[in-house]
């Protein structure tokens, strides 16, 4: 012995991603409230901008835009918020009932449930020995087995996710805040111009900026490319606004509302 330590250090294995020259994909945003804000905001901007486009094509005044715009915004916001609450509450009720059924199945038909899990794991690629070992472990813990069966049926636990009333309130608030963007141009430009066309152009610009911001947020949530998400969101808003403008212009002529 030369007096030096005879210990040898085992070299660290390279990370699988680094070994293949691939970077770790970016994680999407998590949380149901963030998704409610973004998707309610997108719907609000497009709905509000489409309404303004149809009103502007009909050559109605800025007062008409503000009155009809805010009235429609509040009514749609209440409808969307309540709809989100009802939908989330219904999903929660279904999950509660499904868990009761699953608990009964696990308690009274344990062998059938164990066999179903065994078949599932084998379908996923486990060999029979490993699948049997996993099922036997789960069989010792009834609550875990119930949770696994719930996941297998594609149903979340009733305790997962945000409270229905909170999701409904967030959806309502997001709809009001973001849906106000197209209408705000008519208020901001009051000291600077009386031309309704200029105000409509301002509404187009504010709507485009808001849509771009939420398109970027949508890309962050879904892990998409920012350019693709923003361009798609802008195209959606432009298409909806153009369709509303054309319909308003046609109906103005049909109704004989020309100046």
Describe this structure in words.
By secondary structure, the chain is mainly α. The chain has one domain (32-251). Helix content is 75%, strand content 0%. Helix 2 (32-57) packs parallel to helix 7, helix 2 (32-57) runs parallel beside helix 10 and helix 3 crosses helix 6 (142-152). It is elongated, with a radius of gyration of 28 Å. The termini are far apart.
SSE topology:
Blueprint: H1 16-19, H2 32-57, H3 62-108, H4 110-123, H5 128-139, H6 142-152, H7 164-179, H8 181-188, H9 196-222, H10 226-255
Helix pairs in contact: 2-3, 2-7, 2-9, 2-10, 3-4, 3-6, 3-7, 4-5, 8-9, 9-10
Region (Disordered): 1-27
Keywords: Ion transport, Iron, Iron transport, Membrane, Transmembrane, Transmembrane helix, Transport, Vacuole
Protein name: Vacuolar iron transporter
């Amino acid at each position: 012995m030369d007096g030096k330590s005879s210990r040898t250090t085992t070299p660290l294995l390279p990370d699988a991603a680094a070994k293949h020259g691939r970077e770790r994909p970016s994680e999407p945003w998590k949380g149901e409230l963030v998704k409610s804000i973004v998707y309610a905001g997108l719907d609000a901007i497009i709905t509000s901008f489409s309404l303004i486009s149809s009103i502007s094509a009909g050559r109605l005044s800025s007062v008409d835009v503000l009155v009809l715009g805010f009235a429609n915004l509040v009514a749609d916001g209440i409808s969307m918020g309540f709809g989100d609450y009802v939908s989330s509450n219904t999903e929660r009720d279904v999950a509660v009932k499904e868990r009761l059924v699953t608990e009964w199945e696990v308690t009274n038909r344990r062998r059938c449930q164990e066999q179903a899990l065994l078949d599932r794991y084998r379908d996923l690629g486990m060999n029979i020995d490993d699948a049997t070992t996993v099922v036997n472990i789960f069989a010792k813990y009834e609550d875990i087995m119930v949770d696994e069966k719930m996941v297998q049926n594609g149903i979340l636990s009733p305790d997962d996710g945000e409270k229905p009333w909170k999701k409904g309130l967030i959806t309502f608030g997001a709809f009001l805040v973001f849906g106000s963007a197209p209408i705000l141009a008519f208020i901001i430009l009051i000291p600077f111009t009386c031309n309704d066309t200029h105000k409509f152009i301002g509404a187009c610009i504010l709507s485009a900026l808001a849509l771009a911001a939420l398109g970027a947020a949508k890309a962050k949530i879904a892990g998409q490319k920012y350019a693709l998400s923003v361009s798609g969101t802008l195209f959606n808003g432009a298409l909806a606004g153009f369709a509303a403008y054309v319909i308003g212009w046609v109906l103005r002529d049909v109704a004989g509302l020309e100046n």
